[in-house]
């Protein structure tokens, strides 16, 4: 089923060809939307998989936890070459983004040594903190429906924010209390 002369003597997709395809998909993976690109490369251009098999992989990738595109890369690699293919597709897809992150970290480190950039980043951080605070206040206002909801918000803030208690145990106690306090709602408050 392979084309482009990319099949080895046993009729399998070479790992290098698999790496090359998924490397370039990884290079341009900013913002998602990779499933159509994978479909084009794997089904239409190279004919490594049939359409139905690919679409089955899309369904599996969406059901599994994690990023759909990486799940799909693993599925395709596994179908084409087993565990080595799954590993190759995943590593290839992550190679370029990993390199970009390392380069960005190095550039960021160098930029911090410039005083003006460091001051600008402090200003950006302050603005971002202000925007987060405003969003929190807007969300709190939208959620306030009387004294019980205000008490729940304050209790959650004190327990998690001030006392530094673990979120899960705090919520396992506060959520049922919150639901119980809001249970008999009036129609105009729903």
Descriptive notes:
- The chain has 190 residues and is mainly α.
- It folds into 2 domains: 98 residues, no CATH class; 75 residues, no CATH class.
- It is built from 7 helices and no strands.
- α1 packs across α4.
- It is flat.
- The termini are far apart.
Write a concise keyword list for the protein shown above.
about 190 residues, mainly alpha, 2 domains, 7 helices, flat, disordered N terminus
Order of helices and strands: HHHHHHH
Task: Tell me the radius of gyration.
Answer: 25 Å
Helix content: over 70%
Strand content: under 5%
Count of spatially separate domains = 2
Total helix count? 7
Shape: flat
- Residue stretches low in confidence (pLDDT < 50, at least 5 long) are 1-5
How many DSSP E strands? Answer: 0
In angstroms, what separates the terminal alpha carbons?
A: 58 Å
Give me the secondary-structure category: mainly alpha
Q: What is the residue-averaged pLDDT? A: 87
Largest sheet: none
Short overview:
This protein has 190 residues and is an all-alpha fold.
Layout of secondary structure:
Layout: H1 15-27, H2 35-45, H3 51-63, H4 68-112, H5 115-143, H6 147-162, H7 167-182
